[in-house]
Amino acid sequence: LFIIPFPFPIKAKWFVLGYGVFELIFGISNFSWDNVAHFAHLGGMLFGIFMILYWRKKDRVHGNYY
Q1: What residues does each domain of the chain span?
Q2: How far from chain centre, in Å, is Cα 4?
Q3: Strand ranges, E, within the chain
Q4: What local confidence, expressed as pLDDT, does residue 38 receive?
């Protein structure tokens, strides 16, 4: 992944982990100027992780390899 603030490429898994930590910190610290649903973003990330794990398990059981 090549993101504009970083002048070097990073792996997507590290970017997602950092983004999750950022959302958790900002979700716990209640800033009055922040109108973002940080826990909704974390919920979406968890749902995405569970979907990936489900699809991987389903592919192993049915033998679907791409």
Answers
A1: 12-62
A2: 18
A3: none
A4: 87
